[in-house]
Amino acid sequence: MSNDNAHLMMPYWRLSGFYFFYFATHGVVAHRRRRFDTISVGMTAMTAPSINERYTLTAISLHWLVALLIFAGFSLGWIMTDIPGLTPTKLRYFSWHKWIGVTIFFFVCLRVLWRLTHRPPPLPPMPRWQRIAAQVSHGTLYGLMLLIPLAGYLYSYAAGVPVVYLGLIELPPLITPNPAHEDIFKYTHIGLNFTMAALVIGHIAAALGHHFIRRDGVLARMAPLLSRRTES
Amino acid sequence: MPITLAAMATWAQTPTANPGTISFVAKQMNVPIKGQFKQFSAQIQFDPARPAAGKAAVEIDVASLDLGDKEFNYEMNTKTWLDTRAYPKATFISSAIKAIAPDRLEVSGKLTIKGKTLDVAVPVTLKTEGRTRVFEGTLPIRRTMFNIGEDEWRDTSVVADEVQIRFHLIAAPQ
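^ inputs. structure came back:
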């Protein structure tokens, strides 16, 4: 799918306006550097973006909801483990952290189901290695979003502490308490978290790179508000 | 059946062999936190024919508490919680035993934890297993009444006030 020839389908009297807007917003250098990308962005300024160019509203909502929960869960995990000794705040944070983890696990299950039944919008042309890198890192992120809460859950049960979701529902113990397993799950949970942190940094860097350097609309597929604001 | 050993048969638990268990469950934001006391001893005199004449004394070595986590165990020994240096023993001494049913007793007595003594009544189930007797039951206490969890822990929104003490005492004839 390409918009390269979009300007050819336009009445000639509108072309000057098209190019004025296009070069004013993107510049000649950017145009030379990435012909495809800038034209496609320029086009969306004049015609409404077609709905299949971005993720479904469900996918977008789940993505940002889970992103927010991951940020909250990670920060809380960091803060609570830094609190020395035993305080009510520490215990409260531990409970909240576990509730957030369970919530993430639940929403990520929904996300995986949704992703498997709904094709994501196509990517703009890019080198093969980048396409593969995107697929591998997205797949890994999905895996980590499920494995990290699971490892934390098992860590809690290995330590003999049940997870009571929202202080209401005691979740099933998948394993019996065992101090030897406790450390395994603990370090798995922590290790996977730092792996995920590194991947998320790469994920954000790639998204910002696509948006501000390449301007190819990749981020707008997941952030529709952003695309409207910058292009109109 | 070893029931008619004597009018006042003494059933004393042997601390080294298999004394049974004394454990507890506290609730932290509805999460059951289980712990147990690894060292304790009990002296029980009981004759089923004359339950009212029975006597029981239980002594717990509080510092033997195990929550399954080193850091938590350490904290429980501090002044804020059980202050085991000042109060190394928790005791229960019966004052009256009442038979409710052939296998059910109500044992009243004085419970002392962290230097505070309160009157309690404990429902006890009695089982005879060969030549041993098992006294089993659950005693709910309010931790704040014994000053367990001082200062910021007085607030019971994180750690609930009620703590259930569960005992399973095995007594062998002496």
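DSSP finds eight helices and two strands in chain A. Chain A touches chain B at residues 85-88, 91-92, 95, 159-164, 167-168, 170, 177, 179 (CB under 8 Å).
thumbs up if we can close this ticket
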